[in-house]
Amino acid sequence: MNQREIIDFHEGWKFMQNGITKLKSILEGAAETHFTSEEHIMLYTTIYNMCTQKPPHDYSQQLYDKYKESFHEYITSSVLPSLKERHDEFMLRELVRRWQNHQVMARWLSRFFFYLDRYFISRRSLPPLMEVGLTCFRELVYQEVKVKVRDAVISLIDREREGEQIDRALLKNVLDIFVEIGNGLMDFYEKDFEDAMLKDTGAYYSRKASNWIVDDSCPDYMLKAENCLRREKERVSHYLHSSSETKLLEKVQHELLFVYATQLLEKEQSGCHALLMDEKVEDLSRMYRLFSKISGGLEPVSNTFKQHVTAEGSALVKQAEDAVSQKKTDKKDVVGVQEQVFVRKVIDLHDKFMAYVNNCFLNHTLFHKALKDAFEVFCNKGVAGSSNAELLATFCDNILKKGGSEKLSDEAIEETLEKVVKLLAYIGDKDLFAEFYRKKLARRLLFNKSANDDHERSILTKLKQQCGGQFTSKMEGMVTDLTLARENQTHFEEYLNNNPTANPGIDLTVTVLTTGFWPSYKSFDLNLPVEMVKCIEVFKEFYETKTKHRKLTWIYSFGTCNVNGKFESKTIELVVTTHQAAALLLFNTSNRLSYQEIMAQLNLSDEDVVRLLHSLSCAKYKILNKEPSTKVISPNDVFEFNGKFTDKMRHIKIHLPPGDEKKKVIEDVDKDRRYAIDASIIRIMKSRKVLGYQQLVSECVEQLSRMFKPDVKAIKKRIEDLITRDYLERDKDNANLFKYLA
Amino acid sequence: MNKLGRGQRDKLQQFMLITGASEKVAFQALKASDWQFEGAFDLFYSHPQPRSAADTRHIEELYNRYKDPYVDMIMADGISLLCNDIQVDPQDIVMLVVSWHMKAATMCEFSKKEFIGGLQAMGVDSLDKFRERIPFLRSELRDEQKFREIYDFAFGWAKEKGQKSLALDTAIGMWQLLFAEKHWPLVDHWCEFLQARHNKAISRDTWSQLLEFARTVDPALSNYDPDGAWPYLIDEFTEYLNENGIIEKGKLSEWNYKS
Questions:
Q1: DSSP code of A557?
Q2: What is the spatial distance between Cα B96 and Cα A237, in angstroms, rounded to a whole number?
Q3: Looking at this predicted complex, what is its ipTM?
Q4: Min CA distance, B203 vs chain A (Å)?
Q5: Is B212 in the A-facing interface, judged by CB distances under 8 Å?
Q6: Is the dihedral of CA A375, A378, A379, A380 positive or negative?
Q7: Are A514 and A545 in contact (CB under 8 A)?
Q8: Residues near A198 by beta carbon (within 8 Å), at least 6 away in sequence
Q9: What are A302-349's pLDDT values in tens digits?
Q10: What H or E segment, with its residue span, contains residue A348?
Q11: N or C, fewer C-beta in 10 Å, chain A?
């Protein structure tokens, strides 16, 4: 086989045309047999030959043109007319059919004319065959009908929104055309369809929203909004292109939520505030979900939440204050039941709203902050003269001491302690809490009133975690001291056994405390009864055998004594404080003593004498008779041993209520604060050397904020004191600038 | 001397203070060196004044006139005598200026060194000259810079030896004296306030800052910055003024204004 026969163009084309015609009629649905492989090969080969013939018989260009023409001709003669005569849904269906047909046609023709794709197009930098086909369809069909198609699709979408059932598959197919017609670019989809669709969506929801906002309550509106968003999302998955999802949802959110956000939240009966009041947890969750999607949507919600929590908290404060003001006047300074109830309620309130933050508001930081801010507002208000620091400390005391007002299981106690420590975070004056807690801890430890050692240690651990080691170091020292004291006592008893002459004749237990850890106590020069004086001396001797470098200061106010009262009917053992014992023992030498005589003999202050005599003569057990027998101790009273006293028990405890500690605690804390401020100022100035007043103050405040909120005036005073003590000086030219003096 | 410019007068004073020379000598030295300190110092120290010896002798004589019989200091009696001689009331504020020139450590007593040094600084070696000097010394109070120095000096001078702060009564007395010279409308209110509310000694910082306050803050407190670094006593003073209606919204109430 040497030379092929030259195929003449018209001949060749006629052959091809037959093939094309056959193809067309297959597409039109005529009963035709499909192309056999032979026919396929023939058609392909014809093209091949016509392209590879030597010039002037290489017909590549003409064939390329004819290829294009074929589409043109078919489209203009059949496709377009059929589309033009149809409308709406029918048109859409026809379009889909014609597109599918076109793709088949393009595929087949490309196979026939394939050889052009191999060399011709790249040599002349022409678009490949498939692309040519696509472009034809696009220019001739798509551009013609795109507006009509778009409008038809959008109107179907709107009908679906109104609840009608539509042919989703059809829409998917139509929209696929918009996508595929771009041949990799989304431009046509976006410009020719999406933009208009979004605009229509916006208008649609805007209309709806303007009605709903008037007619519906907030929860109902939100429910509708949520549903709409859900349906739109489904719409995308059913027939819209996935890239439309974000834009579509944003549009809907904008029209339904963003535009009407304020109106919605502030609805009188059903807005955010009302939902909080009525505890509509589910609606609030929905509100969070919806508003978190629009920019700046959550701020007003969190603000309303904050206001609500603050109001509830402040109401509790007021409630407690009212309850307290109805108390009897003589019990005013003592932190009582009402205050304890208040603390309980605050804990419960915190739990409740923390649950909101966790569940409704999905732990969002805005809401955590709102909760924190709200609690900080009312947790620093105090109730009836007692600061919250004191109330919390008293609350802990009640839980931790024996016979406290709270009777709870171990688990419940742990949980409650945990919550109390959390509340502490909101209190500005943490150092005040520490001091009150320390004072009460001291009482518990020294009077052996602590209910459970494990709980004591557990709360110290929690406090340490929350506030740092410095906060709890002294308290831990106190607890350790007691353990050491017990050991010490054992040694003391051995010492007594080994030195029987030294024995004072009275059973003595001494608890030695490390001064730095314990609250400061005024030590009175109580005149001890003779019997006790010997005890003190014996212990001193013993202690000096152990260490010579320490000084012992005796705090009698915390001692207890067991005294036998030989009453007429029977002897009863009285458990009293050392002060009370000293007073009672005075009556061993004289039967009748006046207030003044007692005070002189004991060498105590008026305050202490009044309290002590009251406990012995006007309280539950009248060990002493008082003339006149009023309920109040006056300096003119006279006291007598009440021999006729009796009780069915053989062993009774005579309670001596503690004096007012509050003032002293506050004084001590103020003093410590002054030192803390001094130290802070010096620390700052030492490292900065020169610093302006405002900056110094603000850095100082920040450094100290872990423990308390320092008063700016107090800081100013300390700065001046440090100037006087030559730690700092003012700059000569600028009085607002301070310099550190090494 | 009146023809001297402000800058020249300042230089003159400084020169006198540093060298202890009399005004005339100082003037000559400065004039000769074209009012440049370096040259003037050179001139002065290279030409030791023959009269300085005489000066010192005269001054020593004066010292001996006033010195206490038992202690080598001039005490209260001696000061009274001195005041008599120069025809000045001992309570007169000019004595403060004199003490300042002497760099006296404490009021009501002058050491020998202080007396001699002070008279030299003032360019005085006889009672006549002293009397003549008095108007000039008085005038020094009107100099802004000098007043400040004298005011600051007054604190250390008026307080008790060994104390860090100035007793309130003394402080009030000093303030009355000083602010009679340099008028401050609020001085009486300030003293009232201290007696009513403070009743404790005055620190050096408060003392010196008060002058700043009097100098820079308008009596109606319109330019007072409550967040500034003023001593807390001054802050409380402004609160006191507001509370008692002395200052109403930045305006000094008419009937309280003392000029």
A1: G
A2: 97
A3: 0.72
A4: 7
A5: yes
A6: positive
A7: no
A8: A244, A247, A248, A251
A9: 999 999 999 999 999 988 888 877 766 555 555 677 788 899 999 999
A10: helix A337-355
A11: N
Rounded distance between C-alpha atoms, residue A96 and residue A119, angstroms: 33
Q: How far is A593 from chain B (nearest CA, A)?
A: 44
Q: H or E segment at A573?
A: strand A571-577
Q: With 0-12 CB in 10 A as exposed, 13-18 as middle and 19+ as buried, what is A197? A: buried
- Quote the radius of gyration of chain A (alpha carbons, Å): 47
Q: Across chain A, what does the average pLDDT equal?
A: 88
And the tokens for A269?
Answer: 């009966």
User: What kind and span of H or E run contains A111?
Assistant: helix A88-112
Q: How many whole angstroms separate alpha carbon B250 and alpha carbon A422?
A: 47
What amino acid occupies position B70? Y
Among candidate residues A214, A349, A364, A362, the one with its CA nearest the CA of residue A281: A362
What is d(CA A522, CA B67) in angstroms, rounded to the nearest whole number? 54
Buried b (16+ CB within 10 A) or exposed e, A297-324: bbebbbebbbebbbbbbeebbeebbebb
Among B164, B209, B212, whose Cβ lies nearest the Cβ of A724? B164
**In 3D, which of A430, A429, A456, A425 has the Cα closest to residue A443?**
A456
CB A429 within 8 A of CB A387: yes
CA atoms within 13 A on the CB side of A484: 9
Q: Is the peptide bond before A628 cis (omega within 30 degrees of 0)?
A: yes
SS3 A304: helix
pLDDT, tens digit, 9 for 90 and up, residues A98-148: 999 999 899 988 888 888 888 888 888 889 989 999 999 999 999 999 999
Contact at CB, B229 and A736, closer than 8 angstroms: yes
Would you list the DSSP string of A506-529? Answer: S--------TTTSPP-PPP-----
Beta bridge partners of A594: A638
Measure the CA–CA gap between A39 and A684, rounded to whole angstroms. Answer: 96
Question: Touching check for B228 and chain A: CB below 8 Å?
Answer: yes
Of chain A, the percentage scoring pLDDT greater than 70 comes to 98
Distance of CA B97 to the CA centre of its chain: 4
Which among B105, B100, B244, B92 has a CA at the least distance from the CA of B163? B105
Question: Any bridge partners for residue A572, and if so which?
Answer: A565
| B50 — pLDDT class (breaks 50, 70, 90) | very low
Cβ-defined contact of B205 to A736 (cutoff 8 Å): no
Which of B165, B209, B232 lies nearest to residue A735, judging by beta carbons? B209
Hey, which residues does A690 pair with through a beta bridge? Answer: A739
Q: What is the CA radius of gyration of chain B?
A: 21
What is residue A623's DSSP assignment? S
Q: Which of A424, A429, A445 is nearest to A517 (CA)?
A: A445
**CA distance between the termini of chain B:** 32
Q: From CA B143, how far away is CA B10, in angstroms rounded?
A: 10
The reply to whether omega before B219 is within 30° of 0 (cis) is: no
Strand A690-692: give its sheet, edge to edge.
A690-692, A737-740, A728-730
Number of A to B CB contacts under 8 A, please give it: 33
CA atoms of A306 and A311, how far apart (whole Å) = 9
Distance of CA A85 to the CA centre of its chain: 65
Q: Identity (one letter) of the amino acid at A522?
A: K
Question: What is the C-alpha to C-alpha distance for residues A670 and A663, in angstroms, rounded to an integer?
Answer: 11
Q: What are the distances in angstroms from CA A224 to CA A216, A217, A252, A499, B259?
A: 10, 11, 12, 92, 76
* pTM reported for the whole predicted model: 0.74
List CB contacts of A686: < 8 A, sequence separation 6 or more.
A740
**Torsion sign (Cα): A316, A319, A320, A321:** positive
Tokens of A57: 């018989």
Q: What share of chain A in percent tops pLDDT 90?
A: 39
| Tokens 């170091």 found at | A473
Reference B59, options B1, B113, B125, B4; nearest CA is B125
The type of residue at A580 is Q
